[in-house]
Fold each of these.
Amino acid sequence: MHSFLSTVYKVSNVLPIFSTSSDVSGMKKDLIIIVWSEKGLCGWLNVRLFKKIMHDFDPVSTDCFVVGKKAAEFCHKQGYQVVGKCHLKDDFSDVELQNLYAFLHQTLKKNPYKTISVVFNFFKNTLQQIPVILQTYPLDRKVIEDFFTKIWISELLIEKKPMFHWILLEPSRAKLAKSLSEQLMNYVVYGTVLQNKTGEMAARMLAMKKAKDNAADRIKYLTIAFNKARQWAITQEIMEIVAAKAAITDEK
């Protein structure tokens, strides 16, 4: 997490130098990259993302690229248009995201969307994952500062290193900005996927721990109930034997 935030902070410092102007006029849609889970035992993470997406994005003006099986099911049910999807294993590699990288490369080249954002769960700690929306295009210092505010992280906690104020750009600022924007987009997306996967693992771990604790409590309760029933059955048998012996003695 520290490495991801440090890099994002450094990007926010460099962006004013490499900023590019983009035409966001006209009836353009928004694109959201939804990072979701592939398996169960972390449903509460998905539910919070459900609510955030439905609150912030209109299905009519929003296209979705989904990462994960659960995201595709949600988008189809809610009427969002799915323009692409990919599936990741728990132990995934950067190669498995090549379809997403290629799609983003073509999207930045054609510029068909007004904004591009990533919706994911930010892993703050084992007990706390924060559903957030990180706008990756257009990306500037204000967007990064808003992201830090949403995840309750101060910029002062991020490692800061001195940067050069005078940089020679070759071959040109425009070409370098275009190349840098694609690399930054890929890195930010990969970082968000890692954050969400880490949150999934933590959620599953907590779910299994809670299930284990509940099972242990249930076993303890059932053991006590079984012992009581067994003791009552023994006591009842003894009482029946004593009563039968007493009846035989009285007859004699």
Amino acid sequence: MQLVVEDSDEGHMLVNFVLRNRMLLNMVLSQNINLLENSFAPLMHVPKCRLLLHFDVKRAYFKMRIKRMRQKSNRMSFSGNALRVNVSRDSVFEDSFNKLRYASADEMRRRLSVQFDGEEGMDAGGLTREWYTVLGREIFNANYCLFMPTVDSVTFQPNPNSWINPEHLDDFKFFGRVVGKAIYDGHLVDAHFTRSFYNHI
């Protein structure tokens, strides 16, 4: 399939067509999201067209792609081949950072198995959920200077003074990997950001 380039004549024609018919296109896609994988694929590849798709359509497409990635990863991985993370409760951020910072994309797609030092128990999902909760809180620790609360103290935004922390770029990258892993695994991270930050993501 030939991709449409946005700045080409075909790209301008496509954008104009989508602009005129966006309600109908969104209705069709909400009934059959698989169309974005083949005949309607240019709507995802041309940024101006993608902006005209409803959020629910884009979310359904994203979930479909994640599900397919998971299925492919499950077929390729063997049982017992989990991504193991051993952490101390006193240094969850540092231990997790050191374990995951060099993990490959394939390793990050594996099932996560968390063990807290000095605690017995097998991770049947509960320890992983707890790890996400504890790590989520730790990322907003003021000592790391990564995020700061807004005026309402409910949402967070990147701290403009994060450069004070010499590791801030590596820490932000690590946080992005954790959020990506949480989305991929279907876990919640207790992180509430400003709308402008979500728009940048």
